[in-house]
């Protein structure tokens, strides 16, 4: 099981709900662990990202956080390693599957329990880098941690950290890197 991969948006059809006590994720219309050409479905070791990171057409933006998949029982049931970095109160929600660095799941800087700032790890492709050129989100290619917050004067601040520099990353543009919005 690798520490990271090169895909930031594997197949994510359906919705999921989480039992916080057992850490079991139950899917509706999902295909967890399905075999196919290449790594296109959720597999053990991948990251499941719960909720909408970007606002939807209806203006909904509820992101609950990330967790590592430690086992898959069926196409509609998997278990995550921990709920430590997740917000509570999740009902049935959408999800994405990522191969972002697993170290970010246990890094409190990227926990969704931080309410004073917005943090997220993005897979940034060459196209994403080009789209963000000249903006405050300009960054290199690879796995990039972005933290945004307002300073004491109300100015937007953006901190960027390249966690893994790599080429050949595939993003699917969901969620969109901030410079692409």
What would you note in describing this structure?
The protein has 181 residues and is mainly β. It has one helix at residues 126-132; strands at residues 15-19, 24-28, 47-51, 63-74, 77-80, 95-98, 118-124, 142-150, 156-165. It has one domain (15-171). Helix content is 4%, strand content 34%. It is globular, with a radius of gyration of 16 Å. The model has no long low-confidence stretch (mean pLDDT 77).
Quick rundown:
By secondary structure, the chain is mainly β. It is built from 1 helix and 9 strands.
Strand order of the largest sheet: 1-2-5-4-3-6
Q: What gyration radius follows from the Cα positions, in whole Å? A: 16 Å
User: What's the main sheet like?
Assistant: 6 strands, antiparallel
The general outline is globular
Number of domains: 1
Mean pLDDT: 77
Structural class: mainly beta
Q: How many distinct helices?
A: 1
Distance between the termini: 33 Å
Helix content: under 10%
Instruction: List SSEs in N-to-C order.
Output: EEEEEEEHEE
Low-confidence stretches: none
Total number of beta strands: 9
User: Strand content of the residues, in percent?
Assistant: 25-35%
Topology:
Layout: E1 15-19, E2 24-28, E3 47-51, E4 63-74, E5 77-80, E6 95-98, E7 118-124, H1 126-132, E8 142-150, E9 156-165
Antiparallel strand pairs: 1-2, 2-5, 3-4, 3-6, 4-5, 7-8, 8-9
Keywords, please?
181 residues; mainly beta; three-stranded antiparallel β-sheet; 9 strands
């Amino acid at each position: 099981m690798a520490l990271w991969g090169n895909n930031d948006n594997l197949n994510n059809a359906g919705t999921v709900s989480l039992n916080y006590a057992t850490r079991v994720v139950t899917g509706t219309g999902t295909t967890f662990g399905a075999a196919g050409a290449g790594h296109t479905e959720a597999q053990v070791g991948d990251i499941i990202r719960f909720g909408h990171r970007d606002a939807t057409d209806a203006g909904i933006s509820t992101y609950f956080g990330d967790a590592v998949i430690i086992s898959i029982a069926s196409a509609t049931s998997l278990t995550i390693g921990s709920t430590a970095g997740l917000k509570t109160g999740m009902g049935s929600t959408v999800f994405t599957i990522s191969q972002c660095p697993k170290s970010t799941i246990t890094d409190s800087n990227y926990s969704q329990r931080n309410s004073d700032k917005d943090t997220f790890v993005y897979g940034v492709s060459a196209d994403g880098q080009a789209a963000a050129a000249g903006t405050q989100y300009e960054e290199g290619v690879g796995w990039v941690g972005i933290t945004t917050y307002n300073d004491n004067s109300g100015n937007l601040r953006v901190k960027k950290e390249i966690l893994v520099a790599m080429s050949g990353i595939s993003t699917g543009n969901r969620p969109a890197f901030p410079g692409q919005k």
